[in-house]
Design brief:
- By secondary structure, the protein is mainly α.
- It folds into two domains: 6-55, no CATH class; 59-127, no CATH class.
- The protein is built from five helices and no strands.
- Helix 1 crosses helix 3 and helix 4 (58-106) packs antiparallel against helix 5 (112-127).
């Protein structure tokens, strides 16, 4: 009984054929492989015939992986940008809540605290590419 799956046997035979065709490196001894796998050579080729394992070229696989990597990095950068923006909007909300509380408590007197909150609000708006707001008009 073989310790290899039918797909693994088929893949080894496909690789052996590719190496033979391209005359590259060490060849796979199919007879020895079949003996070590515990199957007959005839049975191995039967698996190969019934299971099509296409072996893409290494260059194509690398290109595909690089493209997937680029797509993942792009999505990650976008997610990070959106997360930063969400954090900044949350900070804006907190500043407006604090400013509103202070104005209700002390009135719109342009206290140092209110001025500091307005400056921080406008700094964050600038980071978001928004126009500053004049709270005292």
């Amino acid at each position: 009984m073989s310790t290899f799956s039918k797909e693994e046997i088929s893949a080894v035979l496909h690789v052996a054929e590719i190496l033979k065709e391209k005359n590259i490196g060490e060849k796979i001894n199919v007879s020895r492989f079949c003996k070590e796998a515990g199957i007959s050579r005839k049975n191995a080729y039967k698996h190969k015939k019934n299971i099509d394992v296409s072996v893409p070229s290494l260059e194509e696989k690398v290109r595909q992986l690089q493209q997937e990597k680029t797509e993942i990095e792009t999505k990650l950068n976008l997610a990070e940008k959106r997360a930063r923006q969400a954090d900044l909007y949350w900070e804006l909300r907190n500043i407006l809540v604090a400013l509103n509380r202070d104005v209700k408590k002390n009135g719109p007197v342009q206290s140092p605290k209110q001025l500091r909150l307005c400056d921080e609000y406008n700094r964050i708006m600038g980071l978001l590419g928004q126009e500053p707001h004049n709270f005292w008009d």
